[in-house]
Design goal:
Layout lengths: L8 E6 L5 E6 L4 E5 L4 E6 L6 E6 L6 E5 L3 E5 L8 E5 L6 E4 L5 E6 L2 E6 L5 E6 L4 E6 L5 E6 L3 E6 L5 E6 L5 E6 L6 E5 L3 E5 L8 E4 L5 E6 L5 E6 L3 E6 L4 E7 L5 E6 L6 E5 L4 E2 L1
Antiparallel strand pairs: 1-2, 2-3, 3-4, 5-6, 6-7, 7-8, 9-10, 10-11, 11-12, 13-14, 14-15, 15-16, 17-18, 18-19, 19-20, 21-22, 22-23, 23-24, 25-26, 26-27
Length: 282
């Protein structure tokens, strides 16, 4: 168990080399751990509201945060001790991610998507939407930005102009998380209706539905080899699934509290889980 948070942990993610773990918390900080010692390496302050998401750049030399204080921040987790704020939305920022090529940063408030240069941190494009955005993901080729909405839509925007490219009715309930597989062949959506669905990019109907959670699914992720899927719900349940067969392999449960975030180590057989009790389980 990784301790040290004074607020609920909303997001966790391994660095690409697996040596560090970053977390975002309602205590307004981003914390980075050395996984070899499980000790804190850095604590980033600067946000005045809870930090909702944290993401690493593909080379591991950047992190970007999304906060309820309407801002996003970025830093080099190897050399920098403070966050640089890169933009102010008119309301909370719910998502912040890097593109697979590391050249773009995308952020989202419930009603707006923004794109920044990851190098200059200048805003390049923004787009208002009529749908309430919960989560973001880039396509593996960097051409599209995916957004999951509270209305059950999966939307795509072109990354050049942030124009709406497609809208697919994924569910009637909220899409809480959206994640691409490591091979880029499919993506998964986690929904408030207790299910996970697997999709082929560009298709309007899903490949598989993973059904078994008894509560709202908040988070979903793939193992590094893409063969396993992990999902967590508001009832404290974590399920491990066989991606190809679409069947449940294992159930993990530490407590009855909401699972807020999951991530597999890139190189070790580890799954890290964050809960609404200020703890991170490894």
């Amino acid at each position: 168990t990784l301790q040290g948070r004074s607020g609920f942990v909303n997001s966790i993610i391994f660095s690409p080399d697996g040596k560090t773990l970053a977390s975002a918390s309602d205590d307004c900080t981003v914390r980075v751990w050395d996984m070899s010692s499980t000790k804190t390496k850095r604590v980033y302050t600067g946000h005045v509201g809870g930090v909702k998401q944290i993401a690493f750049s593909p080379d591991g030399n950047g992190i970007v945060s999304a906060s309820s204080d309407h801002s996003s921040g970025t830093a080099n987790p190897v050399t920098e001790d403070s966050l640089r704020m890169i933009g102010i939305h008119s309301t909370e920022v719910v998502a912040a991610i890097y593109s697979p090529n590391g050249q773009m940063i995308a952020t989202a408030s419930p009603s707006k998507v923004r794109k920044y240069s990851a190098q200059s941190l200048s805003k390049r494009k923004s787009r208002m939407t009529d749908w309430t955005i919960n989560c973001l993901a880039f396509s593996p080729d960097n051409a599209l930005l995916y957004a999951g909405t509270r209305d059950g839509l999966v939307m795509t925007f072109t990354t050049t102009k942030l124009e709406v490219n497609s809208r697919v009715r994924a569910r009637k309930n909220s899409i809480n998380a959206l994640k691409y597989s490591p091979d880029g062949e499919i993506f998964a959506t986690a929904s408030a209706d207790h299910t996970i669905r697997l999709w082929e990019p560009g298709k309007s109907s899903h490949l598989k539905e993973l059904d078994g959670h008894s509560a709202e699914v908040n988070t979903v992720t793939f193992s590094p080899d893409g063969l396993l899927i992990a999902s967590g719900d508001t009832g404290g349940n974590i399920w491990i699934w066989d991606r190809e067969a679409g069947v449940r392999l294992q159930r993990l449960r530490w407590n009855h509290l909401r699972v807020t975030s999951l991530d597999f180590s890139p190189y070790l057989p580890l799954l890290v889980c964050a809960f609404k009790d200020r703890t991170i389980q490894v």
